[in-house]
């Protein structure tokens, strides 16, 4: 096993805690869960509603993947954390699945949680693999 590589990207959103944007080892990449924060201005309010927040989170993950020279087609699995599971699950799914071609959805776990950083409604992390 090779040594892990700890990736951080200036184009990606500002860290909300002590972490790397992604950690890579032997072509496997764990992407840290992204929040719906604006990558250009962390002080901006979070988008309103689960759909807008899910899209911002997915766009932030695309930024991190892009920094690695990868895209969503390299994602094998995702974990979704939502604070209002019953209310937001369906709308979050609609926004999330719009990022992937039909029949090419990663494996996924979705977990209802009591709270997230910055009072976000959603956070998503991913595992990707280099071709």
Structure report:
30% of the residues are buried. The chain has helices at 50-67, 85-97, and strands spanning 5-7, 22-25, 28-34, 75-82, 107-112, 122-129. Helix 1 packs across helix 2. With 131 residues, it is an alpha+beta fold. The mean pLDDT is 96. It has a 6-stranded mixed sheet. The chain is built from 2 helices and 6 strands, in the order βββαβαββ. The protein has a single domain (5-129), classed as 60s Ribosomal Protein L30, Chain: A (2-Layer Sandwich), CATH 3.30.1330. Helix 2 (85-97) links the parallel strand 4 and strand 5 (107-112).
What is shown here, in short?
24% of the residues lie in helices and 27% in strands.
What is the top-level CATH class?
Alpha Beta
Largest sheet report: 6 strands, mixed
Total beta strand runs: 6
**Total separate domains:** 1
Please state the average pLDDT score: 96
Shape: globular
Low-pLDDT regions: none
Gap from first CA to last CA: 17 Å
Strand content: 25-35%
Taking all Cα atoms into account, the compactness measure Rg is 14 Å
* Strand order of the biggest β-sheet: 1-2-3-6-4-5
What is the chain-wise order of helices and strands?
A: EEEHEHEE
Q: Number of DSSP helices?
A: 2
């Amino acid at each position: 096993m090779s040594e892990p590589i700890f990736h951080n990207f200036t184009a990606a959103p500002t860290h909300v805690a002590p972490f790397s944007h992604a950690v890579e080892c032997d072509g496997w990449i764990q992407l840290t869960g992204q929040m719906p924060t604006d990558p250009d201005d962390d002080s901006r309010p979070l988008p309103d509603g689960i759909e807008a927040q899910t899209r911002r989170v997915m766009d932030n993950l695309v930024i991190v993947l892009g920094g690695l020279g990868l895209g969503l087609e390299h994602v094998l699995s995702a974990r979704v954390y939502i604070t209002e599971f019953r209310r937001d699950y369906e709308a979050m799914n609609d926004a999330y699945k719009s990022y992937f071609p039909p029949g090419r959805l990663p494996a996924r776990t979705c977990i209802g949680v009591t709270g997230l950083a910055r009072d976000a409604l959603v956070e998503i992390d991913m595992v990707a693999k280099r071709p």
